[in-house]
């Protein structure tokens, strides 16, 4: 019995169910597996897999799936998967149509596609295809779970009998040697290759990392930034007949059931895309401007948001609005007074709160230079004892700084260490 057969065997699945029910700890599990006659290697594999069970149950809401740690990490979760499924033809329009899930991995991008579509997973890694076949059957039944061991770049042109109408692709990200981070341009297949692949299908979609430079995306594509309240998980590029709004950018906040929670859109603006790319490089290489919070690419184009002084409110755009660069357009449409307070820093200041969802709004209580005595005086004046420190454009350790400030008082507040017209500044505010 190979590893995958072992993990999907009734004996192992029953054991896992029982051990979860009995809330067994690692030692009890290992002892029980030993007693049941599993070898050391099998025990290790079962225990590793058991560590993933709560994770895939949460990510996909089903009892058993086949995966390993990396395949699970790379997979598209059910909230985003459900949302994306609505972009495909369905009902009569989908009947008899075939889709290639290119770089299918364990299958996250196939599970929720309309049932009328015939989906085939394509991957270079046979282990991933084993996972895909098992998982596709869990979600889509016996008729699906077809796979091709092959290269996403050539599968459509290699054999006439396995051609598909549509594609979805989720390129792998190559790790950069010696770094934890993954270079977002370093995709396998590359985005240039994805553009070539797209020419051979009626339409399709490509999942890119959210920070991928959008000026590389052809004008006739639609771009959608997808995430939740707290993150932006992918930049989805739609091609051909799947692109219902070519030339548009959308930012969509998806709830846990895969429904649209909030959505914004605007025509693409080539000038802004070019300028933002240049700005991003500048900020990425300016250590002085890096705080513990990530520095986001900002829309500092004059046409979107002008610069100005600190007004009554300070707002933090939520990740999908930031990544899509739409936050400037959305802010100024809601409040014409909206502006940035420092070049390249993604805080918006305005006379009234900005729309929520979309922005986290804070009422400004006061501000001063970043100097211990000045900040302490400001905290004391507002009787602030409980602080959350947010950094953007200033680099220091927030926990050490809060200890140093020793706030004493009965109110809680947010302290922003950021920049006003390029100069470091502390802004005290209340979340509203
Ligand atoms: C990010 S994972 C896909 C995750 C998948 N969409 C999911 O939701 O489970 C990328 C996959 O691309 C595969 N891959 C990389 N280059 C490929 C190529 N040229 N052709 C086919 N598959 C490839 C890798 O083996 C890996 O399984």
CATH fold category name of the largest domain: Rossmann fold
CATH superfamily of the largest domain: Vaccinia Virus protein VP39
**Total discrete domains:** 3
List the bound ligands.
Answer: S-adenosylmethionine
CATH top level of the largest domain is: Alpha Beta
Tally of separate helices: 14
Mean pLDDT score, rounded?
Answer: 89
Work out the strand percent.
25-35%
**Structural classification:** alpha/beta
Distance between the termini: 59 Å
Question: Major beta sheet, specifics?
Answer: 9 strands, mixed
Description:
- The chain is α/β, with parallel strands linked by helices.
- The chain has 14 helices and 18 strands.
- The strands form three sheets. A nine-stranded mixed sheet has the order 3-2-1-4-7-9-8-10-11. A seven-stranded mixed sheet has the order 13-14-12-15-18-17-16. Strands 5-6 form a two-stranded antiparallel sheet.
- About 5% of the residues have low confidence.
- The protein binds S-adenosylmethionine.
- The site of S-adenosylmethionine has 22 residues, from strand 2.
In short:
It contains 14 helices and 18 strands.
Relevant terms:
binds S-adenosylmethionine, seven-stranded mixed sheet, 432 residues, 31% helix, alpha/beta, 18 strands, Rossmann fold, 3 domains
Q: Which SSEs are present, and which pair or pack?
A:
Elements: H1 3-7, H2 10-21, H3 26-35, H4 40-60, H5 69-74, H6 78-85, E1 98-102, E2 118-123, H7 126-140, E3 146-149, H8 155-158, E4 166-169, E5 172-175, E6 182-188, H9 191-198, E7 203-208, E8 222-227, E9 232-240, E10 248-254, E11 260-267, H10 270-284, E12 313-317, H11 319-323, H12 327-334, E13 339-340, E14 348-350, E15 359-368, H13 372-381, E16 384-391, H14 398-405, E17 411-420, E18 423-431
Parallel strand pairs: 1-2, 1-4, 2-3, 4-7, 8-10, 16-17
Antiparallel strand pairs: 5-6, 7-9, 8-9, 10-11, 12-14, 12-15, 13-14, 15-18, 17-18
The structure holds S-adenosylmethionine.
């Amino acid at each position: 019995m190979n590893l995958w057969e072992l993990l999907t065997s009734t004996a192992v699945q029953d054991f896992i169910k029982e051990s979860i029910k009995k809330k067994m700890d690692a030692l009890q599990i290992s002892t029980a597996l030993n007693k049941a006659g599993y070898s050391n290697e099998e025990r290790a594999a079962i225990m590793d897999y058991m560590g993933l069970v709560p994770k895939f149950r949460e990510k996909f809401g089903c009892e058993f799936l086949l995966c390993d740690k990396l395949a699970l990490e790379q997979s598209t979760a059910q909230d985003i998967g459900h949302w994306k499924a609505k972009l495909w033809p369905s009902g009569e329009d989908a009947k008899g149509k075939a889709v290639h899930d290119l770089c299918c991995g364990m299958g996250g991008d196939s599970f929720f596609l309309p049932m009328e579509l015939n989906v085939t997973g394509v991957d270079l890694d046979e282990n991933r295809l084993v996972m895909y076949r098992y998982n596709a059957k869990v979600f889509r039944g016996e008729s699906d779970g077809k796979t091709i061991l092959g290269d996403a770049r050539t599968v459509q042109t290699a054999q006439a009998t396995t051609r598909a109408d549509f594609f979805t692709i989720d390129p792998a990200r190559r790790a950069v040697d010696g770094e934890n981070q993954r270079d977002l341009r370093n995709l396998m297949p590359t985005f240039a290759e994805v553009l070539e692949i797209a020419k051979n299908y009626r339409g399709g979609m490509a999942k890119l990392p959210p920070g991928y430079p959008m000026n590389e995306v052809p004008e006739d594509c639609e771009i959608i930034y997808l995430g939740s309240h707290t993150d932006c998980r992918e930049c989805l590029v739609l091609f051909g007949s799947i692109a219902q709004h070519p030339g548009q950018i959308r930012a969509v906040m998806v709830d846990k059931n895969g429904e649209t929670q909030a959505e914004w859109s605007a025509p693409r603006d080539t000038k802004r895309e070019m300028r933002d790319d240049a700005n991003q490089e500048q900020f990425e290489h300016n250590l002085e401007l890096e705080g513990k919070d990530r520095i986001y690419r900002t829309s500092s184009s004059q046409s979107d948001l002008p610069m100005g002084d600190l007004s009554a409110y300070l707002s933090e755009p939520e990740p999908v609005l930031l990544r899509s660069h739409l936050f400037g357009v959305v802010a100024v449409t809601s409040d014409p007074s909206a502006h940035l307070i420092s070049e390249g820093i993604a805080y918006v200041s305005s006379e009234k709160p900005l729309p929520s969802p979309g922005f986290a709004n804070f009422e400004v209580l006061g501000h001063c230079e970043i100097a211990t005595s000045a900040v302490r005086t400001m905290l004391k004046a507002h009787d602030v004892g409980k602080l959350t420190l947010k950094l953007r454009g200033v680099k220091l350790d927030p926990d050490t700084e809060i200890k140093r400030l020793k706030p004493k008082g009965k109110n809680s507040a947010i302290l922003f260490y950021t920049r006003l017209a390029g100069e470091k500044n502390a802004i005290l505010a209340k979340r509203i």
